[in-house]
């Protein structure tokens, strides 16, 4: 079956521009996470959606970052007025949050480069 | 806030040597997960431990979950070059809904 997909795979933008990154989770997965990973670094939690609950936005680094999840499925991460320090790989993961396994399935990521 | 600490940050080993990475949480976890990220790839789930004191094995990999459910370890016996990558632990908390907290990862380098 289809896994988590993300688009675009690569995005190069100029400083100050807005970007939108898309995540299509595995069908039926109620939990969706966004992470940011700089080169050679760990996973920086950004935001977490779980079902119809209010999202946990505690990881968003600034008010330039926002995310939404429509219909409990597709999610979009928006970065406004991009800065060079926003350059990183943005990973999306989804999980079924079942009674036993909370395994997260990661997408391939979007590599964002801000010039 | 809740944290999951992972050590070491890096480990260089000679092929055939053993390797261990440790994970410690500031709070009790409902479960612990381990992921592997190959260079240039994305994290891939390896295993989940749920029970206090649980030990699971996958070929040369041994995973342990501490009695207090606050720490965990991953041990690789006789490393191979295919083991190269970053190993992340991730703990689930169940305060206000499930939320997984990742450790910073241990990057393993294996020299042939």
Report a brief summary of the structure.
The complex is a heterodimer of chains A (115) and B (112). Chain A is 0% helix and 45% strand. Chain A is mainly β and 115 residues long.
Structural class of chain A: mainly beta
- Biggest contact: A-B, 26 and 23 residues
Terminal-residue CA separation of chain B:
41 Å
Distance between the termini of chain A: 37 Å
Helical content class of chain A: under 10%
Write the layout of secondary structure elements.
The complex is a heterodimer of chains A (115) and B (112).
Chain A: E1 5-7, E2 10-13, E3 19-24, E4 31-37, E5 44-50, E6 65-69, E7 75-79, E8 88-95, E9 105-106, E10 110-114
Parallel strand pairs in A: 2-10
Antiparallel strand pairs in A: 1-3, 3-7, 4-5, 4-8, 6-7, 8-9, 8-10
Chain B: E1 4-7, E2 10-14, E3 19-25, E4 31-37, E5 44-49, E6 55-58, E7 61-65, E8 71-76, E9 85-93, E10 99-102, E11 106-111
Parallel strand pairs in B: 2-11
Antiparallel strand pairs in B: 1-3, 3-8, 4-5, 4-9, 6-7, 7-8, 9-10, 9-11
Q: Can you walk through the features of this model?
A:
The complex is a heterodimer of chains A (115) and B (112). Chain A is mainly beta and 115 residues long. Chain A has strands at residues 5-7, 10-13, 19-24, 31-37, 44-50, 65-69, 75-79, 88-95, 105-106, 110-114. In chain A, the strands form two sheets. In chain A, strands 2, 4, 5, 8, 9 and 10 form a six-stranded mixed beta sheet that branches. Chain A has a four-stranded antiparallel beta sheet with strand order 1-3-7-6, with no helix packed on it. In chain A, strand 4 and strand 5 (44-50) form a beta hairpin. The termini of chain A are far apart. Chain B is mainly beta and 112 residues long. Chain B contains no helices and eleven strands. In chain B, the strands form two sheets. In chain B, strands 2, 4, 5, 9, 10 and 11 form a six-stranded mixed beta sheet that branches. A five-stranded antiparallel beta sheet of chain B has the order 1-3-8-7-6, with no helix packed on it. In chain B, strand 4 and strand 5 (44-49) form a beta hairpin. Chain B is globular and about 45 Å long. The N and C termini of chain B lie far apart (41 Å). Chain A binds chain B through residues 31, 33, 35, 40-43, 45, 48, 50, 53, 56, 91, 93, 95, 97, 100-109, and chain B through 31, 33, 35, 42-45, 48, 50, 86, 88, 90, 92, 97-105, 107.
């Amino acid at each position: 079956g289809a896994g988590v997909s993300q688009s675009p795979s690569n995005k190069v933008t100029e400083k100050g521009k807005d970007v939108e990154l898309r995540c299509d989770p595995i069908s039926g997965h109620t939990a969706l996470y966004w992470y940011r990973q700089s080169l050679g670094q760990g996973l920086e939690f950004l935001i977490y959606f779980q079902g119809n609950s209010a999202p946990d936005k505690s990881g968003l680094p600034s008010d330039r970052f926002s995310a939404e999840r429509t219909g409990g499925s597709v999610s979009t991460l928006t970065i406004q007025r991009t800065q060079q320090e926003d350059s990183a790989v943005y990973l999306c993961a989804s999980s079924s949050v079942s009674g036993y396994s909370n395994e997260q399935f990661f997408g391939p990521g979007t590599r964002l480069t801000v010039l | 806030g809740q944290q999951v600490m992972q050590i070491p940050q890096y480990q260089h080993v000679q092929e055939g040597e053993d390797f261990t990475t440790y994970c410690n949480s500031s709070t009790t976890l409902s479960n612990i997960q381990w992921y592997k990220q190959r260079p240039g790839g994305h994290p891939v789930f390896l295993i989940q431990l749920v029970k206090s004191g649980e030990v699971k094995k996958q070929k040369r990999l041994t995973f342990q979950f501490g009695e207090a459910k606050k720490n965990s370890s991953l041990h690789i016996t006789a490393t191979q070059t295919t083991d190269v990558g970053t190993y992340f632990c991730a703990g689930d908390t169940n305060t206000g809904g499930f939320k997984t907290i990742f450790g910073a990862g241990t990057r393993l380098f294996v020299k042939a």
